[in-house]
Amino acid sequence: xxxxxxxxxxxxxxxxxxxxxxxxxxxxxxxxxxxxxxxxxxxxxxxxxxxxxxxxxxxxxxxxxxxxxxxxxxxxxxxxxxxxxxxxxxxxxxxxxxxxxxxxxxxxxxxxxxxxxxxxxxxxxxxxxxxxxxxxxxxxxxxxxxxxxxxxxxxxxxxxxxxxxxxxxxxxxxxxxxxxxxxxxxxxxxx
Length: 191
Fold this sequence. Notes:
By secondary structure, the chain is of the alpha/beta class. 34% of the residues lie in helices and 22% in strands. It has 6 helices and 10 strands; from the N terminus they run βαβαββαβαββββαβα. The strands form 3 sheets. The chain has a 6-stranded parallel β-sheet, with helices on both faces. The chain is globular and about 45 Å long. 43% of the residues are buried.
């Protein structure tokens, strides 16, 4: 990987921790640790880390930038100078200026991590691929929750994650563990 690669962290906001703490079934219990490892690896390699966060226009939403629940989780606090884009919909590219920023920076490959896998990560990864970016999704650096099945019942969080990752892998990018992404990073500048 080189200067054309960026880490894109999607919606790692405090409400994700709140939902987890409420007991909702979740895959990847170590996702926060993996996100932090990816961010540290990209920063050490001198590669860009870009953040997309959700600012839901509905007043009842907990994903709003004016609420504590809308603030970044400790594992994904933007470092000074890192780009932050606020979105009001599912894809990080819709109405945010993210694409223009990436193009101007010469970014052609995105490593995507964050939450929720089946929703905003999925939408953002698909949009990125459709816009011509090379996409890699860090499978263990994603938060995935169980979800209601359309015909009743509940879909297991692990199943939701596997279906999401399988669809992304089949047509939108490469799915790999965070350790493989980190192993491919260039060595950082000497201290």
